[in-house]
Amino acid sequence: MRHEFAGHGASRGSALGRARVRLPHALEVTEEHIPAAAVEDEVQRLHAAIDVVRTEMRDLRQRLHGALAHEVGEFVDLHALLLDDPELLQGLDDLIRTGLYAADYALRLQRDRIAGVFSSMDDAYLRSRIDDIDQVIGRIHAALHRRSADLQGVAGEILVTDSVAPAELAQLQAQGVMAVVTSAGSALSHSAILARSLHLPLVVGAATALQRINDGDVLVVDGGSGLVVLEPNAADLRAHHQRLREHKRERRQLNRLRREPTRTTDGVDIKLWANAESREDVAEAHALGAAGVGLYRTEFLFLQRNELPDEDEQFRTYRDVVLGMTGRTVTIRTLDVGADKADRTGLALTDEPNPALGLRGVRLSLTRADVFDTQLRAIVRASGYGPVRVLVPMVSTREEILAVRKRLTRVSDELRAQGHEVAAQIPLGAMIEVPAAAIGLSSFIGSIDFLSIGTNDLVQYLLAADRNNEALGELYTPLHPAVLRLLSTIIATANRRGKSVAVCGEMAGDPLFAPLLLALGLNEFSLHPGTLLELRRAIRDCDLAQLRARAPALLRARSRAAIEAWMHAQL
Ligand code: PEP
Ligand code: MG
């Protein structure tokens, strides 16, 4: 019999398939006590299970590559942190020791206790964090019973479950699962964020789905509206096919742009660079006609491992990116560990009171000459295989740039003397992401060849709003009059001095911001290849002269609402 479930659309897309139901196994446990003599064994059994999960998370982390390592990795790290949370662990031990509960039941009690705290929170995002606790506790429970907590998906199926972990989503998609429906969860959860970037349809909060849907039932899932239909009728199927056609039409239109120039309606070519971290990104960037790689974040070679990569390993990695871009320029950013990019090699300090304002980026490189020279040597050797630029993160003073320039020149001379093929020119650029570098740009722009604006950090430092602190909500936004004025000044200074300037923060990849950045004078964007075609389409709809004429009105905006009204008027 046809039945509708109204959930919340968390990731767009339409799917038709047979259901695969995963019942919540984690905490279907009844109250169970243990004799006092068995307490220590039980505590040990629990800790052995936690160790198993720790290893699982570590293995999973190592299996993630490229963009996935970046996006899923954050969630896996968060879960790994929860596993080590002293309150969670102590609470569990206490329940076993003083309550004489079996480990399974202790997990259940502890979960309910934490859920009680979360459910009383006002903030919807924080409330949704209980999903993370559930996923971690579910894994420990599975490990207690020596079964894998990972889902096995089957190509063409739609998974129906209580909640889904971000790392599972990536696996499910690789296995060909069409969509996911969860009875709990929130559109603000990490899983939802990830599903959107994976383009995997997801409906959350379909409360009674688990009770009514059985393995093999046919479902239609609309990740846009949140509607899930069990045993769809002819009209449902028609609506699904219609959505698919629309989606396909959109993809086809976008794909036609692969070989088209990124040209505004008044005939100005805009340069689209790619942000790349993996081989896949590089191949995609090349196929989509990116001008080159505008930001290669080398720190991903340094994270998730205990030993520093040596010169040869780095050289091979950089060389392969250069070869993959077949003559288009590759911008290699020197190491930017520290703050939110914590490494395990012992390089970044771990006891800084305020790591975002600490020894990160170029500051760290300049204090670790051995590590920095190794990296520069690898980059310079890669320049023998195609055009390379060096980009320096977290620059705040002219002296930093001069020090890097000196090292780069010395390393290049040494390598040449040793018989290596080294490019005659390796342009040196600075990330503009510290307000001091932005405001004081004219004092050192003569010492650099190009610049790249890192809006992710520039916004955080300018607004004193942590880029990863969800509690700040809308405070962290590029749509602040101060941010726009600063961007306008940086771009104008660079244009006046004839230096190439791109924006390489996430802002550059969002088609909504394209008219705004064009109005401010930007001619180069660097973004993840995933949205490159969407951005190209948006730019091809823009009249550059008209937008630039409207820049003064944009810069007069006194609030986010006024900036949004300006953006709206351009659509
Ligand atoms: C930025 O800060 O905008 C940037 C591109 O660098 P990252 O996100 O790697 O800090
Ligand atoms: Mg940055």
Using only C-alpha atoms, the radius of gyration works out to 26 Å
Mean pLDDT over all positions: 89
What is the CATH topology of the largest domain?
A: TIM Barrel
Which ligands occur here?
phosphoenolpyruvate, magnesium ion
Relevant terms:
571 residues, alpha/beta, Glucose Oxidase, domain 1, Enzyme I, Chain A, domain 2, TIM Barrel, 8-stranded mixed β-sheet, 8-stranded parallel β-sheet, 16 strands, binds phosphoenolpyruvate
Q: Would you kindly provide a written description of the structure presented here, covering whatever features stand out?
A:
This protein is of the alpha/beta class and 571 residues long. The protein folds into three domains: 3-22 and 153-253, Glucose Oxidase, domain 1 (3-Layer(bba) Sandwich); 36-144, Enzyme I, Chain A, domain 2; 256-570, Phosphoenolpyruvate-binding domains (TIM Barrel). It is built from 24 helices and 16 strands. The protein has an eight-stranded mixed beta sheet. The mean pLDDT is 89. The structure holds phosphoenolpyruvate and magnesium ion.
Could you give a quick summary of the protein structure above?
By secondary structure, this protein is an alpha/beta fold. The protein contains 24 helices and 16 strands. The chain folds into 3 domains: about 120 residues, Phosphohistidine domain (Glucose Oxidase, domain 1, 3-Layer(bba) Sandwich); about 110 residues, Enzyme I, Chain A, domain 2 (Orthogonal Bundle); about 325 residues, Phosphoenolpyruvate-binding domains (TIM Barrel, Alpha-Beta Barrel).
